[in-house]
Structures
1.
Amino acid sequence: MDKTILELKNISKSFGGVNALKNVSLNIEKGKVVGIVGENGAGKSTLMKIIVGALQPDSGEIFYKGKRVTFKTPLEAMNSGISIVYQEPNIFGDMSVLENLFLGNEELSKFGKINWDKMYENGKNALSLVDLPEDILSKNMNELSIGNQQLVLIARGVSQNCEVLILDEPTSILSYSETETLFKIIKRLQEEGVSILYISHRLEEITRITDSVVVLRDGEVTTSMKTEDVTEEKIISAMSGRTFNMDVFRKRDLSDVPTLIKVDNLSHRDYYSNVSFSIKKGEILGMYGLVGSGRSEVARTIFGDLLSSGGEIYFEGEKINNHDTKSAVERGIHYLPEDRGVQGLFNIHSVKYNMSASFIENFVGKFGFIDRKQEVKAVDDNINKYNIKLHSMDAKITSLSGGNQQKVLFSRWLLKQPKLLILDEPTRGVDIATKSEMHNYIMNLASEGVSILLISSDLTEVLMLSDRLIIMREGKLVGELNRDEFTEENVLRLSIGLQ
Ligand SMILES: Nc1ncnc2c1ncn2[C@@H]1O[C@H](COP(=O)(O)OP(=O)(O)OP(=O)(O)O)[C@@H](O)[C@H]1O
Ligand SMILES: [Mg+2]
């Protein structure tokens, strides 16, 4: 019996001069979880968008349950049983959970009116598929945690008799326990015969939940293998064709080094209380905590983006409570925010603008005009140095792949060397090869005397890079570990509150 449910034949797609996909062929079997991996810009999201009709291929064919299909919209695909949860989630924050579940797909009565009772019933059933309670149906989406918003989108996808579910980096915004919930849901769906295409940059997830792995490189399939045959080296070399050093930590003697920043009993009415720590010059202080523990809010306060309600911040000995972001940048405090969608990127603008706007004064020439040549050179240097894949620096930032957008954000803060660099989830959505490059840059900066506050949910990352680690839980600092006390178990125990 043929178990194939979805077959792609020779799919190609280009954007202007970029060949995003070249003759990609794939077979997906019923009830299997297939991991899709590849470097940033390899074509993963493009391929997924083509399957559901969000993009049309230039050539190639798609067969679903034995029949050739050409979906014109993702809604059409969803109604036929193929759903997608995008990498950059489509959330309508001001609308209710119920509306988000059925947007564009409302239950209509005979007379063309929306049948709210029926929708409520369907909504309840949809949420039960992802273990969410029905009482959130009437809440606005933005009242939910990012993780639960993601689960609502998954519920939307699987509720329409889904047979193929596509998840494009679903865990990059999920906390530890939300990820566990997601994995349970995936297992359950799989047992019911749903096939899942799962994109992730986290190898430990890929090896844990998939049956097979497909590697894309520069728009081509380089390898597919059974998950039991996967090793880190095999995947990395199929992805990038190069090898690199994953262990970048360099020991520095920080005993006689002065403190750069000291945070003393810092409090915020809604988010955190009595947080105290200090960072030496050239030290990397890791900050770990579950999403919602208040870590990002502490960072935003130091950057002047959020006012504290108590406590002190001293920077180079000077009290800088409640300064604003402009003076923070002038003092040499730079901040890479967690949510590139909301806080980070100017979506309608070009890559060049996104990179240089914060430091445009760097490029002011003798007569007060902006020296565009110098600006272009600096931006170009960054693009090369950080290996950012793009068609042109004048391209809209949103035309870049997710990981490459993140690299633009990361590198823009380095156009001018900071004294304190606050990195909030710097490598979210970034592929393994680039991640290791970014880790190297972070280590180099620290060695040059830049202090770094590294906030990350990626435990491997904080443990590898940090000199010291502080752990937050529910708005409080609950522990501090020195490098010789670094174990996953120690960190998790503190962060979830076990003794
Ligand atoms: N709308 C678009 N316009 C122009 N180029 C695009 C567009 N969408 C994607 N591309 C280009 O196609 C290539 C593949 O991008 P894609 O988003 O599929 O990568 P990806 O494998 O999902 O990467 P990531 O891991 O960073 O999410 C990239 O070079 C990207 O810049
Ligand atoms: Mg992508």
2.
Amino acid sequence: MKPAVQATINLAALKYNLQRVRDCITSHQQIIAVIKANAYGHGIIEVAKALTELDAFAVARLEEAITLRQAGFSQRILILGGIFNTEELLRAIKNQFDLVVHSEHQLCLLELINNSQPINVWLKLDTGMHRLGINPELTQQFHQRLNRINFVNEIIDMTHLADADNKSSDNTEQQLQCFENHSQSNNVSIANSAGILHWHQTKQGWVRPGIMLYGSSPMLKTSGPDENLKAVMTLKSRLIAINQYHQGESIGYGSTWTCPSTTKIGVVAIGYGDGYPRNIAPDTPVLLHNQRCSIVGRVSMDTLSININNIENCQIGDEVTLWGEDLPVDEIADSANTIAYELLCNLTNRVDKAYK
Ligand SMILES: Cc1ncc(COP(=O)(O)O)c(C=O)c1O
């Protein structure tokens, strides 16, 4: 039985995008692949397997790191959010995870336990993101305290960029300057995907690509192909009804779209219950027979409707592409007033995944 909605994950495209990261850096830099949130919706285990040549992965939470270890990955696994109590710290140490330390609270937890197993600490400086991170003025003090903890092995200074998606913002330069003024380590990590692609100075030490690995652009108003990236996920569904309506008849909940003339409407078996955004702009495209046609009316839980007046020989069961290889997810995200990250992460369990 063919699933109603399928996300095909192209692992060759993932590897192509990894090579794209490599082409942007030098042999002095290292890559830690960001595979949090189920590898941005692509499947953490399958993605980690495809990237197994890498030495390090980053996830947001302890649970995600444990999932990877239990699946047999022996690489360095960094927990970007760090840990929040002693029990979590002990589990992290037992599993040899690398930890971000972004607060006094986390430093105190490290200071308070008895442990002999080494652990690597990524000290996060808040250079302007103002989300997680220590006041950069405290960097030296944190280093002194971390150096007194006998089981702390490497200390990597890191920061996260708030506006690197915007080439004309001054903030990235300012964050870099702040980082350079305060960092106490030769071992550092700054660049996310936007840094890797467009901010040369941020490419120091470890680079942390996320979205670019999945083939989508980190930059404002551009799409993956503009950055020479290949879409990893292609989301497809199929036509489950073809109906003809007359001028003046409206389509779907709220009757928000009315046929300007006799119109052939295709009903596609995907809706917000699968993660397709309900707040999509009118006329957002899908692909049917490799041609663009527009979504009309509101997206429902299980279906959406498209205008197929200009598509010949449509049949029930025909494939419809919602985003992917020939229709960048960035473009659809823009139509939903969001970013590709959110669309990719938001697919629900009802969506089947196939790997190729
Ligand atoms: C700390 C940190 N580093 C790196 C990344 C990867 O960012 P991007 O997906 O934009 O490359 C993220 C993602 O949110 C992050 O939180």
